[in-house]
Amino acid sequence: MATKKASKKSRSRKSTRKYSDAAGKSVETEMKAMKEGKLKSGSGKKVTSRKQAIAIGLSEARKAGEKVPPK
Questions:
Q1: pLDDT of res. 5
Q2: Short-list 70, 69, 71, 68, CA closest to 25
Q3: CA-closest candidate to residue 67, choices 15, 34, 30, 18
Q4: Predicted TM-score of the model (pTM)
Q5: Is 23 exposed, middle or buried (0-12, 13-18, 19+ CB in 10 A)?
Q6: What is the reported pLDDT for 9?
Q7: Which are the contacts of 23, defined by CB distance < 8 A and separation ≥ 6?
Q8: How far apart are CA 41 and CA 45, in angstroms?
Q9: What span, in angstroms and rounded, lies between the C-alpha atoms of 9 and 64?
């Protein structure tokens, strides 16, 4: 009895960069600042959330005119 291999459909897409290199650097610097305890939110409180640090980095990149998708 011959078994047939199930053909896998290629679900992978071509990966294109969502962010520019400069935007990645911006996020990287904000993450470092968060880990050092120096990153503050708009209200002046310390940022402890990883997601919030990334959002701040992307926001800074948008202000600088880098390639970043809209909110």
A1: 63
A2: 68
A3: 18
A4: 0.70
A5: buried
A6: 60
A7: 57, 58, 61, 66, 67, 68
A8: 6
A9: 41
- Side chain identity at residue 46, one-letter code: K
Q: Are 48 and 35 in contact (CB under 8 A)?
A: no
How distant, in Å, are the alpha carbons of 16, 59, 60 from that of 47? Answer: 30, 15, 15
Token pair recorded at residue 37: 């305890």
For helices 50-63 and 21-36, give the axis angle rounded to 10 degrees: 140
Which of 45, 22, 48 minimizes the C-alpha distance to 35?
Answer: 48
Helix (H, G, I), strand (E, B) or coil at 31: helix
pLDDT for 19 equals 78
